[in-house]
């Protein structure tokens, strides 16, 4: 399968940060789709200015904020409808290293059927609570998938194979907010999608805008993990019977 790849950025009110992110991607020669999830007028103004300056950029505006997962799902469907086979997804807040895009392109080219996941390399800017939470998420996903294939289920820098991803979206009910990132990983791995992990620098910018709701989003993440763990014994039994 020959891959055709675009960049995909979900955005909500990162009017200042998204400018630098888009500018940093210009050199890579890939079309870029930004899904704006009901941002304020100032952010939309920034995006409109960017589209006038950069022909590789296309912005899709969602009228109402639906959450990160909802924006990503819209982006996957739009990318597939435009003929792309893969989307390299990264965040709008500037945490991800745009210089690593060619590594993701190479990994997709070599492994077109795989889910390419960023394996974060953190510096001292990373909050300790986030690091502990990531470790817990890793272990939970390992148990839920009966596999150690996933190094980090939360990193937003990833290469998405669109066909199997849309198959999941067409047959499973998935969350619309922060829980979507690990949830789609679990679903894809459980369906047999291979995983490639790529080390990539992740920086927590001082004073950066975060939309993570410590109470609500953590509750949603716990719900996703409990659901996956609840189904794990049946998956294990099915695997044993198939041997």
For this entry, give a set of tags.
single chain, 243 residues, alpha/beta, Spore Coat Polysaccharide Biosynthesis Protein SpsA, Chain A, 8 helices, 18% strand
Care to describe what's here?
Helix content is 47%, strand content 18%. The model has no long low-confidence stretch (mean pLDDT 91). By secondary structure, it is an alpha/beta fold. It has a single domain, classed as Spore Coat Polysaccharide Biosynthesis Protein SpsA, Chain A. β1, α1 and β2 form a beta-alpha-beta unit. α1 runs parallel beside α2 and α7 runs parallel beside α8. The protein contains 8 helices and 7 strands. The chain is globular, with a radius of gyration of 17 Å. The protein starts with a strand and ends with a helix. Strands 3-2-1-4-6-5-7 form a 7-stranded mixed beta sheet, sandwiched between helices.
Topology:
Layout: E1 5-11, H1 15-25, E2 32-37, H2 41-53, E3 57-62, H3 68-81, E4 86-89, H4 101-110, E5 115-122, H5 128-145, E6 158-161, H6 162-171, H7 180-190, E7 195-202, H8 216-242
Parallel strand pairs: 1-2, 1-4, 2-3, 5-7
Antiparallel strand pairs: 4-6, 5-6
């Amino acid at each position: 399968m020959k891959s055709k790849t675009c960049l995909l950025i979900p955005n909500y009110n990162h009017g200042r940060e998204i400018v630098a992110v888009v500018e940093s991607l210009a050199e890579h020669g890939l079309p870029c789709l930004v899904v704006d999830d009901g941002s304020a007028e100032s952010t939309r103004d920034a995006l409109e200015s960017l589209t006038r300056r950069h022909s590789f950029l296309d912005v899709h505006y969602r009228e109402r904020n639906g959450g990160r997962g909802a924006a990503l799902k819209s982006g996957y469907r739009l990318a597939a409808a435009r003929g792309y086979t893969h989307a390299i997804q990264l965040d709008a807040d500037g945490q991800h290293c745009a210089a690593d895009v060619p590594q993701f392109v190479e990994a997709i080219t070599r492994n077109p059927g795989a889910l390419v996941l960023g394996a974060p390399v953190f510096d001292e800017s990373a909050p300790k609570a986030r690091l502990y939470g990531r470790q817990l998420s890793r272990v939970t996903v390992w148990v839920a998938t009966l596999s150690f294939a996933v190094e980090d289920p939360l990193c937003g820098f990833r290469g998405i194979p669109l066909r199997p991803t849309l198959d999941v979206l067409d047959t499973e009910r998935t969350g619309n907010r922060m829980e979507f990132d690990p949830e789609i990983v679990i679903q894809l791995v459980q369906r047999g999608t291979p995983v490639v992990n790529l080390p990539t620098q992740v920086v927590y910018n001082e004073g950066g805008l975060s939309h993570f709701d410590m109470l609500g989003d953590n509750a949603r993440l716990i719900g996703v993990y409990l659901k996956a763990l609840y189904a794990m014994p049946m998956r294990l039994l099915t695997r044993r019977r198939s041997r």
